[in-house]
Amino acid sequence: MNSENVQTKWGQFIPLVTVFFFWGFVAASNDILIPVFKKAFDLTQGQSQLVSLAFYIAYTVGSLIYMGISLLMKEDLVNKIGYKNGLALGLGISALGTLLFYPAANTGSFPLMLSGLFIVALGFSLQQTVANPLAIALGPITTGSQRLTLAGGINNFGTTIGPLVVSFAIFGSSAGANTEMSIESVKIPYLVLGLAFLLVAILLKFSSLPDKPVAVVEVENDTNSSRSSALKYPQLIMGMIAIFVYVGVEVSTASNLPAYMESKLGFLTQDIAPYISLYWASLMIGRWTGAVGAFTNDLSIQKILKFIAPYLAFGVFLMVNAIAKHDLTPFYVYGLIILVLIAADILSKGNPARMLLLFSSLGIVALIVGMTTTGMTSVYAFTSVGLFCSTLWPCIFTLAISGLGKNTSQGSSFLIMMIMGGGIVSWLQGFISESIGIQSSYIVGVVCFAYLAFYAWKVSGILRSQGIDFDKPVSGGH
Questions:
Q1: How far apart are CA 91 and CA 101, in angstroms?
Q2: CA 165 from chain center: how many Å?
């Protein structure tokens, strides 16, 4: 990317974010599949979390395959085949994974279901490797993290409707009396999803997306990029752990929520979907708030939008659930919790390290409240974790690759690899819950947020020693 690239290329950015939508749709739908599979296959809570493990470990396997192929070719795979072909190939792999749901549902095979999810996520791994740096590249470097946040907001539109669509496909209308699920009902939504993957692959292939955009990696701090490997930068090493625990706490909080609501609050499986939807909508609320800097540099307008954007996103959640004929009464009070998010966002003043520290601290508070209260107070506390996870991905990603220069693309692939934390931490919490109880098991998330707060504090000093100060180049953004 060069200095002439002063505006976001919306004509290219909009087709790109369709893949971000898919990642969210499938990831959040897993939270509905977990209790369904648990009951249908008579699994323990720890065994049911194999759904998350299979899905998220595929990101690591995919990254290793990507690096292995690049090593054998002696050239970066995506640079060789082009960005558009990389996205299309990733979507094709994911489409193949959805086909496995048909024989898996017909035979009632849990391992085959897991295999299907694994292959879907394998395709997502390649898509993520391409799409994240591409989102940053489609405009000026100073608003790159805002574009990534905006793309995350589209991702969370998928996470908001995914649980509702899959729940409807399995249980039918929430107003109905259907309390049983058929494992065979899972196959139809995933076959439709596979067809959508193929259609979007064709759309992207013929879109105006650049095949080989000028890399962000050469833009700034080239004097700091003489190290031979991305792994020689402490901000990246610590950032890899940060991505691992961030995705871990984000996913495990939601994936263990159905078990908590069923066992402690007496919810039926089919009545949990709106609350899973609220959790993932919380990420959308936060990301829409954090993305306002991508639209305007006017700080006065940004302040106004920071109040409008989150409630607009909350309105989307309410509208989707109204269409699904869910009772909206329990959710109106959540509008007050959103004010905490807005205050923290304003206090961050656009510095990603400060935002990471503030939001991680609030995540710890939310989890402790959820662990020490009962009833709907605890549910709202756990769902509010989504608000405080919302902008952590672009914060960590930006901090971890800052100053890497020509090693940025390599560093990005290492970060994508660490998405496996979503599966491992979810499984760990599920396993621990069998010993100390599902509510107390959220201590795992507290530990994850504690590391993120430590990283936010530590990386600020590391980057300042390298001449990088985010209070200057990213004023008013994230």
A1: 16
A2: 19
430 Cα distance to chain centroid? 20
Say which DSSP state 296 is in: -
Q: Which of 196, 274, 266 lies closest to 31 in space, CA to CA?
A: 274
| Residues 338 and 387: beta-carbon distance below 8 Å | yes
Lowest model confidence (mean pLDDT) among 54-63, 156-165, 242-251, 319-328: 156-165
C-beta of residue 414 within 8 angstroms of C-beta of residue 240:
yes
* pLDDT tens digit sequence for 150-191: 888 888 788 778 888 888 877 765 434 344 556 777 888 888
Return d(Cα 354, Cα 80) in angstroms, integer.
38
Count helices and strands in the chain by DSSP H and E runs: 21, 0
pLDDT digits (tens, 9 = 90+) for 348-375: 877 888 999 999 999 999 999 999 999 9
Question: pTM for the full model?
Answer: 0.78
Integer-rounded Cα Rg, in Å, for the chain is 21
Cβ(137)–Cβ(8) below 8 Å = no
Residue with tokens 């871990």: 248
Written as one string, the DSSP assignment of 120-152 is HHHHHHHHHHHHHHHHHHSS-GGGHHHHHHHHH
Collect all residues with Cβ–Cβ distance below 8 Å to 363 and sequence separation of at least 6. Answer: 249, 385, 388, 389, 445, 449, 452
